[in-house]
C-alpha cells in the first residue's frame, strides 16, 4: 500500500515536472532538512494556539451538551447558534474576531470554534447512545435525568467523545492555521502564506505535509490514550436495544417556538452588538435593521430596488447548491464506503487514515491553487475541494457507529459463515444509521461553507463569488445580506436533515 502511494506521488511529480507543482519525494525530504529550524520554531507557536483552542472548545462543549440533554428546550438554541458559526466561512468571521478580542485570545477562540460544532454533534450522539435497560434500572430506583446522566449516559458517551476528540484535533490545528492568516508574524500558517506568495512550491508542500503530520500525531495520541484508559471504547457492545443513538430531544410545540424565538433574539442581539457593543465601523458592519431595509426597499445609496440583488443572489445560490451537493454526496458516500472497508480490513485504516487527517488539517486556502492546477476550475475541482471538507468527520463518525454494533448481531452473521465485509454491509450499517445522520449534520454546513470558499478561490461563480465581489466593490449591504440569507438557507437544510432522520428512523422501526 505504501509503495503504491509513493508510486502515485512519483507519477504526479513526473506529469507536472515542467510546471513545478508537485515535488519529487527526495526534493521534499531535502526541503525538510533545510527548513527544519524554521518549521520547528513556528510549529511551537501554532501548537500552543491549537492546544489552547482545543481545550477551550472541549471545556465549552461538554457542559453545553449536558445542558442540551437535561433541558431539551435548550438544544435547538445551542445547535442553531453552532450552525450559524459553523457555516460562516472563517475567512470572513476571523478578521472580526481578531479585531474584537485582544492578542492571542482571538486566535485561540478561532481554533475553539473549529472544534465546537463537530464535537458537540458527536457528544450529543454519545449521550443518547444508551442501553434502555440500564436507564430503566435507574428510573425504577427513583433516578431521573441527572441520575441517568451520572450513572449511565456519561459512560456510554465515551466512545462518541473519543471519536469527537479525534475529529477535533485536526480541526483545532486548522483553526490555529486560519487564525495566523490574519496579521500573524509567526506560526505555520504565516510561513505557509509567505511560501505561497513567493511561489516556493517545495516549501509549501513541506509545510503542508508537516502540518498533516502534527495533526496525525495528535489523532494518534487521542487514540492511544483512549485505548489505554478506556480500551472498550468503540468496540462492539452487549446492548440488545434495536439501534443505539436514535433517541432525540423531546420538545413540545410551545418549547420549539420558545427555542426558535430565543435563538433569533440571541443571533440578532450579537449581530447588533458588533456595532453597539464592540464599536465596529458602520461603514463595514451593517445592522439587522439596515439589512432588512435593503432586502425590502433596496439600496439607499444607489436607489436600486431589491430585485437586482435577489436576481444575482438566486443565480449564485443555484450554483452553490450544485457545488455543495456534489461535494456532500461524494464525500458522504466515499466516507461511508471507506468506513466499511476499514472495519472489514483494519489494516487499511492504519495506512490511509493519516492521509485523511493530513488533507483535513491543511487549509483549503493552501490546497486550492494546487488542486485547481491539477483538476481545473470546473465542477470536478470544486467537488474535490468540498469532499476534502466533508470526508474526514464523516469517516470518523460513521466508523464509530459501525464498530459499536452489538456483538450478538454480528454473531448471527458469523454463525452462518458470513465475512467481515458481509457483516459490515448487512448488519453494521443498520446500527450506524444514527451515526450517519450525525455525520450528515456536520457535513451539510461544512459542504456549503467549503463550496463558497472554493467559489471564492477558484471558480468565480456561485455565492462565494457574489460575496467576494460585494466585498471588493465595498457593497457591504449586499455582503451582509448575502451572508444572512446563506445562514438562513443552511439552517433550513439542517432542520430538513433532522426531519429526514426522524422519518427514516420511524420507517425502519428504530425510533424511540
Number of domains: 2
How do the helices and strands follow one another from N- to C-terminus? HHHHHHHHHHHHHHHHHHHHHH
Report helical residue fraction: over 70%
- What is the CATH fold-level name of the largest domain? MetI-like fold
Structural class: mainly alpha
Would you mind describing this structure in some detail?
It is a single chain. By secondary structure, this protein is mainly alpha-helical. The chain folds into two domains: 19-237 and 252-267, Orthogonal Bundle (MetI-like fold), CATH 1.10.3720.10; 285-512, Orthogonal Bundle (MetI-like fold). Helices cover 79% and strands 0% of the residues. It has 22 helices and no strands. It has helices at 2-15, 25-34, 36-70, 74-87, 90-100, 105-128, 132-140, 145-156, 158-179, 188-197, 201-229, 253-276, 288-296, 306-344, 346-361, 364-375, 379-403, 407-415, 420-431, 433-459, 462-472, 476-508.
SSE arrangement:
Layout: H1 2-15, H2 25-34, H3 36-70, H4 74-87, H5 90-100, H6 105-128, H7 132-140, H8 145-156, H9 158-179, H10 188-197, H11 201-229, H12 253-276, H13 288-296, H14 306-344, H15 346-361, H16 364-375, H17 379-403, H18 407-415, H19 420-431, H20 433-459, H21 462-472, H22 476-508
Amino acid at each position: 500500500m505504501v509503495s503504491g502511494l509513493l508510486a502515485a506521488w512519483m507519477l504526479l511529480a513526473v506529469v507536472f515536472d515542467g510546471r513545478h507543482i508537485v515535488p519529487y519525494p527526495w526534493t521534499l525530504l531535502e526541503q525538510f532538512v533545510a527548513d527544519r529550524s524554521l518549521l520547528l520554531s513556528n510549529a511551537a507557536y501554532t501548537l500552543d494556539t491549537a492546544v489552547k483552542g482545543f481545550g477551550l472548545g472541549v471545556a465549552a462543549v461538554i457542559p453545553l451538551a449536558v445542558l442540551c440533554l437535561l433541558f431539551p428546550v435548550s438544544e435547538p438554541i445551542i445547535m442553531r447558534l453552532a450552525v450559524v458559526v459553523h457555516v460562516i466561512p472563517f475567512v470572513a468571521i476571523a478578521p472580526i474576531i481578531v479585531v474584537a478580542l485582544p492578542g492571542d485570545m482571538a486566535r485561540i477562540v478561532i481554533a475553539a470554534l473549529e472544534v465546537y460544532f463537530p464535537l458537540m454533534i458527536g457528544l450529543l450522539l454519545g449521550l443518547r447512545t444508551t442501553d434502555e435497560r440500564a436507564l430503566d434500572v435507574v428510573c425504577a430506583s427513583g433516578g431521573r435525568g441527572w441520575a441517568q446522566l451520572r450513572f449511565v449516559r456519561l459512560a456510554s458517551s465515551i466512545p462518541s467523545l473519543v471519536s469527537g476528540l479525534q475529529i477535533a484535533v485536526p480541526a483545532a490545528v486548522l483553526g490555529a492555521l486560519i487564525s495566523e492568516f490574519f496579521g500573524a508574524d509567526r506560526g505555520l500558517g504565516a510561513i505557509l502564506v509567505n511560501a505561497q506568495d513567493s511561489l516556493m512550491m517545495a516549501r509549501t508542500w513541506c509545510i503542508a505535509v508537516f502540518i498533516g503530520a502534527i495533526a496525525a500525531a495528535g489523532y494518534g495520541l487521542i487514540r492511544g490514550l483512549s485505548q489505554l484508559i478506556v480500551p472498550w471504547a468503540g468496540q462492539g457492545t452487549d446492548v440488545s436495544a434495536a439501534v443505539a443513538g436514535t433517541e432525540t430531544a423531546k420538545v413540545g410545540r410551545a418549547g420549539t417556538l420558545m427555542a426558535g424565538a430565543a435563538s433569533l433574539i440571541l443571533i440578532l442581539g450579537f449581530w447588533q452588538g458588533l456595532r453597539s457593543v464592540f464599536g465596529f465601523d458602520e461603514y463595514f458592519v451593517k445592522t439587522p435593521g439596515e439589512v432588512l431595509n435593503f432586502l425590502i426597499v433596496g439600496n439607499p445609496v444607489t436607489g436600486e430596488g431589491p430585485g437586482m440583488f435577489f436576481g444575482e443572489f438566486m443565480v449564485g445560490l443555484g450554483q452553490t447548491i450544485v457545488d455543495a451537493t456534489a461535494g456532500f454526496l461524494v464525500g458522504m458516500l466515499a466516507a461511508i464506503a471507506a468506513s466499511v472497508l476499514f472495519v472489514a480490513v483494519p489494516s487499511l485504516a492504519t495506512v490511509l487514515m493519516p492521509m485523511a487527517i493530513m488533507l483535513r488539517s491543511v487549509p483549503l486556502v493552501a490546497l486550492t491553487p494546487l488542486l485547481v492546477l491539477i483538476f481545473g476550475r470546473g465542477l470536478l475541482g470544486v467537488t474535490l475541494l468540498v469532499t476534502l471538507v466533508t470526508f474526514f468527520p464523516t469517516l470518523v463518525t460513521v466508523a464509530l457507529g459501525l464498530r459499536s454494533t452489538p456483538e450478538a448481531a454480528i454473531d448471527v452473521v458469523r454463525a452462518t459463515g458470513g465475512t467481515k465485509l458481509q457483516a459490515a454491509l448487512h448488519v453494521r450499517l443498520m446500527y450506524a444509521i444514527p451515526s450517519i445522520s450525525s455525520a450528515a449534520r456536520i457535513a451539510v454546513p461544512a459542504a456549503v461553507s467549503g463550496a463558497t470558499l472554493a467559489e471564492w478561490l477558484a471558480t468565480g461563480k456561485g455565492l462565494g463569488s457574489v460575496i467576494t465581489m460585494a466585498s471588493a466593490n465595498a457593497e457591504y449591504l449586499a455582503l451582509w445580506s448575502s451572508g444572512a440569507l446563506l445562514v438562513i438557507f443552511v439552517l433550513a437544510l439542517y432542520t430538513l436533515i433532522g426531519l429526514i432522520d426522524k422519518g427514516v428512523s420511524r420507517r425502519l422501526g428504530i425510533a424511540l
